[in-house]
Every structure is written in structure tokens, then in C-alpha cells.
Amino acid sequence: MAQRPWRRTGLKHPPLLALGVLLALALLALTHLPPPPSGDHGRARSLRMAPAPISPSPPPWPRQDTATTLCGDKPSSRGTRRRHGDSRRLRELGTRSPSPCVERPCWRGGPQHGDRLRFGGTAPPWLSDDDIQKMKLLAQGQVVSKTRVPAHGQVLRVRLHAEGDPQPPSPGGDCRDGRCGLIKRPGDLYEVVAFHLDRVLGLNRSLPAVARRFSSPILPYSYTNGATRPIIWWAPDVQHLEDTNNDQNSCAMGWLQYQEMLRTHGKAPVVVGTPCKSIQHGEWGRLALFDFLLQVHDRLDRYCCGFEPDPSEPCVEEMLHEKCRNPAELLLVHILVRSSAPSQLVFIDNAGQPQQPEAKLNFRLLQGIDSFPEAAVAVLRSGCLGRRLLESLYVDRELWDSQGGDEGLRPLLRTLERRGQVLLRYLQQHNLTARGTPR
């Protein structure tokens, strides 16, 4: 049998030969293409792809030349401007536009190395200039004196001197100038989270707080052993009753009086001698919302009447829980105001119960409340609570570091978000309203 011509000459199969010629021509054409143009319009589209999944470990510290923001969040008017066509490019790549509440930080900035706070030239809008000033004092001020707080063995009040302060250090000061802080236990770090939660929700009733490690020789060793502790700004004008048995209040009020006041608000004139009559009605909605999210029982339910407490709870160890049988004996605690704003509550001791399971949430904290602050409810409904809290907590380098960054903080933020959704369902089920309240 005669062989076919392509076999006799040793050539490859004709289709394979044609394919090889085409590939060679294509490579030759590519080598003669002009270089890509410079500028924004010549950049590769891959630079605009959606954020990659979150890595299991915290990312490296950000660069120091740009501001901190969050992926997917609306950029600040003071920051980088988004170019037209970015959304179209994402669609062309088959990628969704980022959600406005993606909780992954974009590591874009921070202060110089060694600073305990980082704002990157901008701060979250819910932190006021006064907040920032006080946070810097707490985080970086030199400890110049200490004082024990009566009935609080593990709490120290310290006087602070900030670098560049025109006033010289004055160890003998009485804290009336607002240059003192309260150092609390390492287990109270949740108070720093509570401060940021207060600001993110627009409540603005808690006192500035930061996390800090201390090294001052003035302090006892237990305060300088490397543990991270919260330090809370000491408000010099918080009013306390002169009664030594009830000095943690600005006004004395029992549970039954409190419920009656909530029921008759606007329906009857305020009776002379009514306790806490200077406090605006909307303040109780702020307090109830805040305490429910954090599960703070010490103010409205220090007897743990709204849930079944564990034997280790202070309300059980101090035999307070037994008083739940007689509501007339139940008192409110830490109902405080400042002389500079007697119509507004001030929230202190906000550590709460981060581990409280949903099955044991204390709904008694919400009892009698007919409306909640509109701005706070709007944040809960937006789905942005966790994302904004993450951005806010990032400012506090010591807290962020000690808790393992975003990965370490996420379980806590998810807990707060779930409690927020529970609260929204409660409002819907009880047909409660959200009303605007003064700042």
C-alpha cells in the first residue's frame, strides 16, 4: 500500500502545522504592540477588583501616609475621590459592587509609630473633637499622682499630664480641671467597647475611655505588669448623693417609682418632690437601649429579676436576687447626671455581660419604655453597626492589639449585632416608636 505524501516527507499532520503557524504569527504581532499608556486610564482593571476574602490572621499595620477607611464604605469627602466608571469596571469584570457595610478594614493609614491612638488625619465622624482630646489625654498622658477610690479596691484615680501641656504637672490637683482618669480592672475592657458603641449609636452619654498598658513607677506593680487595662475619663461634675449608702446616684428612685414615672409621662403634671424630675423623658429610652445591647444590669435591674442568674452572679452572691419577690424593695443604681447637664443621664460602669446568651437576655431593662432614640434605631436597622464599630475600635491601637485585631473582635461585634436585631423585633412586636431626641 502506498504511503500518503505527508507521511513520506516526515511532515506533521496538516491541521497541527497550521495551528503552529498561527501561534507564531500571534506572538510576532504582540512583540510589535506599543507600550500601554500612562495615567489612570491605562491602569490594569485587576487593581479595581472586589476585596479578597478576609485572611485568618490580622493584616499588617497600615501605611502612614493616608487615612483609615473601610472597604466598601462611602469615602470621606476629605479623602480619596472615587473616579467615574469604577462601578462599570466592576460590572464588566463580573464582580458585584461592594456592599456599603462590608466589615473588612482597608489598611490605609495611622499616626506615627508608637502612638497609642491612630486617626490618620481623619477620625470617625461620631467621635467629637472633645472626645479625641480626652482620648489622647487618657492614652498618652503621664501619670503624676494616684488616689484610691473608696469602696472600689481595684480602681485607681490618676492625675495625668499631657506632653506639650502649657500647665506644669500638679500632683496635688483635685481633678476639677478634667485632667484625671479612672484605671479599672483588665476584666473591664468591655467598657472601652461600650464607649465606642455609645458614640456609633449617637447616644453620647458615656465618658471617653481607652485601653492602655501602664509603666509609671507611681503605680502599684499589679498595674504595671503588662496587662491592658481600661482608663475612663473622670468627669469632675458628676453629682452624687451625700448619703453614704446611696452615693452612686444623683437621685434616689425605686423600681415602682420608675415605672410609674414612665407610665404618667405627659399625662399628668410633675409632682413636686418627684425623684429625678429634671431628667428628660427621652433619656430613659437611651439608657434602656444601651443597657440592653450591652446587658448591663447594675442600673435598672441590679437584682437580676429579669432573668435567671448563675450562682456566680454578684446579685446572687450578695443575696440581692431574693428581693425580687418584693418590688417595693428594688432600687435603681448608677442613675447619675452632671451639674453641667442635669437633664441628661451619664452612663458609667458599662462593662455589661458580653457572654450573656440570647436565651437569657434581660428584657426587663426595656419594661415601661415607649420610645427609643431614632438615630440609634436607624443604625441598628442599617446593618452597619458592626462595620462602624470595627472602624471606631481601630482607632484604639492598644485595644485592637490586645484583642487580636478584627478577627478577635468579630465574635463580640456579631453578638452586639444580633442583640440589635432582637431589639428591633421587640420594637415591632410591641408597636413601639423611634423618636428624635436632643443631643
Automatic annotation (TrEMBL):
Top-rank taxon = Eukaryota
**Name recorded for this polypeptide:** Golgi-associated kinase 1A
The organism of origin for this protein:
Aythya fuligula
Q: What is the lineage of its organism?
A: Eukaryota, Metazoa, Chordata, Craniata, Vertebrata
Gene name? GASK1A
Compositionally biased region (Pro residues) = 53-62
**Which family does the entry's similarity section mention?**
Belongs to the GASK family.
Region spans: Disordered? 37-107
* Subcellular location per the Swiss-Prot or TrEMBL entry: Endomembrane system; Golgi apparatus
State a single Pfam family of this protein.
FAM198
